[in-house]
What we know:
Layout: H1 2-6, H2 11-19, H3 23-31, H4 37-44, H5 52-67, E1 70-78, H6 105-118, E2 123-127, H7 132-135, H8 137-147, E3 153-157, H9 163-173, E4 175-179, H10 187-193, H11 202-206, H12 208-215, E5 219-223, H13 232-249, E6 254-258, H14 277-290, E7 295-298, H15 304-311, E8 317-319, H16 346-355, E9 359-361
Parallel strand pairs: 1-2, 1-8, 1-9, 2-3, 3-4, 4-5, 5-6, 6-7, 7-8
Helix pairs in contact: 3-4, 4-13, 4-14, 5-14, 6-8, 8-9, 9-12
Amino acid sequence: MFSEELAKISWDDxxxxxxxxxxxxxxxxxxxxxxxxxxFMALISPAAEPYIETMAQMSQRITxxxxxxxxxxxxxxxxxxxxxxxxxxxxxxxxxxIKRITLTEEQIRQECEAxxxxxxxENVLLLTGEYPAVAGVDYIEKALKICxxxxxxxxxxxMPLKMRDYKRLVDNAGLNGVTxxxxxxxxxxxxxxxxxxxxxxxxxxxxxxxxxxxxxVYKIGMGVLIGLDKHWKTDITMLAYHLRYLQKMYWKSCFxxxxxxxxxxxxxxxxxxxxxxxxxxxxTFAFRIFDHDVDISYSTREEPRFRENMMKLxxxxxxxxxxxxxxxxxxxxxxxxxxxxDERSPKEVTDDIRSMGYEPVWKDWDKVFD
Length: 370
């Protein structure tokens, strides 16, 4: 399990190593065809800032070689905002007095039909809070089966599950992918941000990716919350270590990464550090140079113009028309998990994508392959 590997890596030593990188380290990394994690550390370090234009050009070239001029489109579908966790930064946390909703079977169908009217989406990400008694495995399986006739590619972002439950959803309900944010790899700080609930168990969450791989999940999505820990460069480096481990152990799966910059949430939470757009761009270029094949996703958290620019330089997946509240597509929903920055309709987003010479891809998987 990855928790055993992570225990061998010093957080403080990694932080110092990133800060001590030099221009020579950056140039060495940029000269290599296959980078290791130390090279990645050089590319996200302060020493790499003067090389950001070179990194952008390299990232663009690699992305077009691997993905062409395409952007995969997806949309989130929130099923429930009920949660038993006390995550201090989340609008869905248990202590927040918000309107709680778990969609019924009919409401899920209504959301599917509303999404179909927005655009020809085939990649849908189902999300819930973490409340097993309300939105447990049985509920998730039922929701996947309801959504399956509407969409070809179903992923989910829910509570970490047992391996047999992941396999059950893959085999019986057509689950294609699972996204899970580790939030932060700093174990001590993790417990500060997640004081109660199942999510407070660090090893259960970080080893969930192993269980996904063991269950044969086709696509595994990863990420940390930028702004949760002040040393985001160290957090991202741990993510790079984790990705390399998973690729070695579960080579039949493919992987995606996401770098959400945290936003204020219901309950008054403010991020511990604010990442600039320039820093996010540098991180994106570094990750593309580090791993040529990983899917890099930007959600509607980011502003339209920035997403458009990054689409040409390394990003390969985008959401559009997103609602972050259960029932938000078919009618007014409950409290949103976070407010989106890109409020354009799917048509507006895809029109802009095409105007820049890129092609939106609505479908990259078919039920015939299951």
